[in-house]
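User: Some background: our group keeps a shared notebook of sequences we're curious about, and every so often someone picks one and asks for a predicted structure to add to the entry. Today it's my turn. The entry only has the sequence so far, pasted here. Could you supply the structure so I can complete it?
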Amino acid sequence: MQSDYRKATLFAAVLLLLAWPHKAEASGFRIANQSLGAVGLSGARTAYTPGPDASYYNPANMSYLPDSWLVETSLTALQLPAIEYADNRGSAFNGSSENELFWMPLLHMTSPQYGRLRYGFSLTYPFGLAKQWEQPYPKALAEKFSLLTVEANPTFAYSLADWLSIGGGLRFVYGKGEVENEIGAPLSPLATLSRSSDGTDTQLGYNLAVSIRPNEQWTVAATYRSEVELDLDGHSDLQATAGSLPLAAYAGDGSVGITLPAVLSLATALTVDRLTVELAWDRTFWSSFDHLDFAYTQNFQSSPFFAVFDSMLVKNWDDADAYRIGLTYDWNASWTTTLGFTYDRTPVPATTLGFELPDADAMVYCAGIRYRYSPRMEFGLSYMYHRTSTRSVSQADANTSAIDGRFTEGGAHAVTLGVITTF
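Assistant: Of course. Here's the predicted structure to add to the notebook entry:
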């Protein structure tokens, strides 16, 4: 047992060393798919979690796993095509975001049974933003806007009965944010204004789970992940110039608070012969994300130059629902395929839509395949296509976000390679 424990610890340490230097900034505020199985099932991974990612998606289900160490190490490549913006006021306001590619190394592990208890651990990237614009108008509002979060989530499961298990865990969430703006001619004819800010914070949250399994073929489950409030403290540089002539500057402390919302998930899964179907609904409580308020050691609200950087950005997002279906088919003892689909509602109202996240309703299509090389080792490949709808906003909609146009293209592609080991 001590040897097995050392192996599991080694797996965790190696992946942490691989993960940290890559600075895997993710795009989109909530990133639901955090494992090989979740990518292949479009996040329908709450009721049916036969692998070590049960530690993250439903720790209560760890009670139903094989009595051994299970470890999943995977790597997701997330590619974000450019978003095109066409403004109703003229082509001078148009823009195109940068194409981006990010890497997310992931870890999930679960322990053998210790009486009625099981333990688990997950390393994930649950929320993130990443948008860059180089054209004058979008650049003035969000030249660069990024948020990286990394979550370490130790978990447990306790089997109350053969048909009932509860679970939970602590969420250690590290966040790092970066914001850059540059307001130049013709938007600011007398001066060029720029801001560069960054900040970090680590906060604690929790997650809870329950699974009811009337029989081996049917599971009903619920999970809840708590809200986490980050206060990103760091450094800010503000500058105002006229040509090469400096007019004003600030270099000092800066901070901004950002709320990572709570998530409630309800799901049921049924297995018939070789096919398992999961239906899931989750609500992300985005209504907690009501504003962004940058703070400095000086008050710039009456400044002729920097007042624009010291104004609270109203967001007033709405709670948003996602509806998921996942299909898992075991062809034989070696091969398993998955399909998934999600209809994901955007939380962003037209009145506060911005270039930092020009979000829209989305359809998510996923597929995956796994090969069991041996009873102790399994390889997998999953793919996700996140297709966003065209989003049109006009000033006639009482829009206060400075958007008067149409966003097209965008979306996301993700490919995940993973290995699951048993020992």
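Suggested note for the entry: The mean pLDDT is 90. The chain has one domain: 2-422.
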